[in-house]
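Deliverable D2.4 — example input (structure tokens):
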């Protein structure tokens, strides 16, 4: 029960941040699971299984509060599904840490760029749907490989490109449901076909996964309201600042200074 309550708190905090700023549920949850000794593929599969429920609730909240740019949703979701399936299959057979240094560097640079835009109070501008597909494919792949790269990669890029923060966050969170569903299905397929040899470890972490689901579901319904009510400039500062924190945290992990 202690494990369940701990991960309930982790899931609630991670989803509260993710729903409001469009990122961090996967990164926070995966980092805690890895710190508890969970293998990378098992951690990623666990987080994506939990996210099926939390992203559905979060997407509904964003749709209710009209935070979605419908022009971007379809290309983001379709390309994200393709990239996510590929990433899940790769991670089930290989070590995903190879790409992590590049992701950390990208997050740090994007965070600095967004903070610079916030300091200049640069106006928002719509992002062309043409760019949504390649961005979705990259975000989906990194999300499956890293256990939480969709939001930091896709939300940050849209905000950095000038998209209104609440619409970027709402659109990315909604597309994430479809990506998460596809990634989870790929992990299941890898289990059935024997490609994923560490799948048995999932049963050993049922309490943690259950806590992530319960905590995330408690926080998810408030996602759309928070994103809608917070003014654009503070939201932009918050997104940029969170990216810097995430990049710093993952950089310390790569350096072996944090587990």
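Example output (designed residues):
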């Amino acid at each position: 029960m202690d494990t369940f309550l701990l991960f309930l708190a982790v899931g609630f905090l991670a989803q509260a941040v993710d729903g409001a700023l469009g990122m961090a549920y996967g990164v926070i949850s995966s980092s805690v699971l890895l710190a508890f000794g969970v293998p990378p593929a098992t951690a990623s599969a666990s987080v994506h299984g939990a996210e099926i429920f939390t992203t559905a609730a979060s997407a509904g909240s964003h749709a209710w509060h009209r935070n979605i740019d419908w022009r971007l949703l379809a290309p983001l979701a379709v390309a994200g599904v393709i990239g996510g399936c590929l990433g899940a299959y790769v991670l089930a057979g290989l070590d995903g840490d190879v790409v992590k240094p590049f992701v950390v560097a990208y997050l740090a640079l994007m965070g600095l760029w967004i903070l610079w835009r916030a300091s200049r109070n640069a106006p928002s501008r719509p992002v062309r749907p043409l760019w949504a597909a390649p961005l979705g494919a990259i975000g989906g792949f990194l999300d499956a490989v890293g256990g939480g790269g969709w939001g930091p990669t896709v939300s940050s890029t849209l905000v950095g490109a000038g998209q209104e923060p609440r619409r970027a966050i709402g659109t990315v969170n909604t597309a994430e449901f479809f990506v998460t569903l596809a990634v989870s299905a790929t992990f299941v397929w890898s289990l059935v076909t024997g490609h994923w040899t560490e799948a048995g470890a999932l049963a050993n972490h049922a309490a943690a996964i259950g806590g992530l689901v319960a905590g995330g579901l408690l926080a998810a319904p408030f996602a759309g309201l928070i994103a809608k009510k917070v003014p654009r400039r503070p939201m932009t500062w918050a997104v940029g600042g969170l990216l810097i924190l995430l990049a710093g945290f993952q950089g310390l992990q790569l350096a072996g200074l944090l587990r």
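The mean pLDDT is 82.
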